[in-house]
Amino acid sequence: MFFKSKAMNIREVTEYITNSFRKTTPYQVSGTSLPRVVNLLETPKKAKSETIEQIYNEYIKYGRESVVLVSLSHSCHCFQWSISHATQICFWRGRIYANPNKRIDLLVLVFSRQQLII
């Protein structure tokens, strides 16, 4: 799934995703917490892999919902593992500014019972 975007920074992306979950009915009615947004941009490759697996395990064991913002090479093991375990995967169209001088491609991994609606 691709989402249209203008040039955004990571804070704007995080707010956009949080607001998207606020639009879903179960979170408005039941008062449960929104999925946490975890930013793994600018994180070393090994730490990304370990953190994504830890987030997945927390989702399976405890039901803790999360959204992971990450940039991964399509050929790496972590990407291949992630696409088979995430409940939803979104490729953000356009590049995101991780800092003022660096633009990156963004992959959004969702570990949640709710769909990310944009």
Question: What does it look like?
Answer:
α3 (45-62) links the parallel β3 and β4. Strands 1, 2, 3, 4, 5 and 6 form a 6-stranded mixed beta sheet that branches. It contains 4 helices and 6 strands, in the order ββααβαβαββ. With 118 residues, it is an alpha/beta fold. The protein has helices spanning 10-22, 25-30, 45-62, 77-85; strands spanning 2-3, 8-9, 36-39, 66-70, 88-99, 102-111.
Helix and strand topology:
Elements: E1 2-3, E2 8-9, H1 10-22, H2 25-30, E3 36-39, H3 45-62, E4 66-70, H4 77-85, E5 88-99, E6 102-111
Number of strands: 6
Structural class: alpha/beta
CA-CA gap between termini: 11 Å
Please state the CA-atom Rg, rounded to the nearest Å: 14 Å
Strand content: 25-35%
Main beta sheet: 6 strands, mixed
Fraction of residues in H or I helices: 25-40%
